[in-house]
Amino acid sequence: MNKKLKFEQAMDQLAEVVQQLESGSAPLDETMKLYQEGMKLTAFCYQKLQDAEQKVKTISAGEKPKTDNEK
Question: How many CB atoms sit inside 10 A of residue 42's CB?
Fold first, then answer.
């Protein structure tokens, strides 16, 4: 997964994948590729949300949040 990818971009791509899968018009091999890409995007978005949640908790606790470079 592209490290420069933003959460919003990943969500847009995921929406496109879901739309293509829901249309049911792709052949089986393409459907499997779309499903795999969707799962990768889902995992990426989930991790971004987990990171954001941790930063909010850290800020709420009055601590200085770690930057991406400090992880």
Answer: 15
Residues of the chain with pLDDT under 70: 1-2, 65-71
Task: State the Cα–Cα distance between residues 27 and 6, nearest whole angstrom.
Answer: 29
Based on the structure, what is the number of domains in the chain?
A: 1
- Residue 1 domain-assigned (yes or no): no
Decide if 25 is inside a domain.
yes
Q: Does residue 69 form part of some domain?
A: no
The answer to whether residue 55 is domain-embedded is no
Q: What is the DSSP letter of 3?
A: T
Distance CA 4, CA 39 (A): 18
Determine how many CB atoms are found less than 10 A away from the CB of residue 52. Answer: 11
Please name the residue ranges forming H helices in the chain: 7-23, 28-60
